Amino acid sequence: MDEKLQTRCVIAGGGPAGIMAGYLLARAGVPVIVLEKHADFFRDFRGDTIHPSSLELMYELGLLDEFLKQPHQEVRQLRAFVNGHVVPIADFTKLPTHCKFIAFMPQWDFLNFLSAHARAFPSFQLLMQHEVVNLTFDQQRVTGVRAKTPRGELEIRADLIIGADGRHSIIQRCAGLERQEFGVAIDVLWMQISKKKDDPQQTLGFFQQGKLLVLLDRGDYWQCGFVIPKGGFDAIKARGLQQLQNDIVSFAAFLRDRVAELDD
Prior knowledge:
The chain is of the alpha/beta class. Helices cover about 25% and strands about 40% of the residues. It has helices at about 15-25, 50-60, 65, 105-120, 170-175, 235-240, 240-250; strands spanning about 5-10, 30-35, 50, 75, 75-80, 85-90, 100-105, 125-130, 130-140, 140-150, 150-165, 185-195, 205-210, 210-215, 220-230.
């Protein structure tokens, strides 16, 4: 049986944009419901960098001290290896902010932290396993959303609907909004390789002959991003897995003894 709810604002998508928007609205006393289609926030290969400007926002919200108690890494300078030479890329130590560093934190930890604080406001609701599947209309006016839940379909009426449901947004499609796309000349292959204690410290990446390998320190493994030309994945597959392993080693030779972990 269909259920129906009423609120002031409903937000489709429980990523950083959706959760932060929900937190700010609830903090201002606006009744808001955030709908997230997954059962939890655990998604690998997501943006895990909390920049100084975002940390400054956490300070302004009064959350910074508690936020920095969460497991994270602080990087004050970024280096890169460009054709074998160490080159400084960024230095955050002179920024006019309270935190003069980038914090590396898994996105699920960030979202769990922020949503826990949002729940302290009585006007905030976060409904997990609620996937927005359509909008509701009165004539040409959008009046709410329909969501698929473990208990059946749910209709939520709201004065404002925010589509924070990503690049394949259901809200955007159902509303008939035109998407403006910006061409990106690269694709990224994400993978993980185990990390050893004597590995080099965190760097931005390894540049070589127009290609880039990014390594993000996840504690016991590296989250690796291999940047390739847009649409170049089929050519890489045609060359074979061993050639990809060799390419990784050509950027970061210290991974030679474990690159075979990339077995698919």
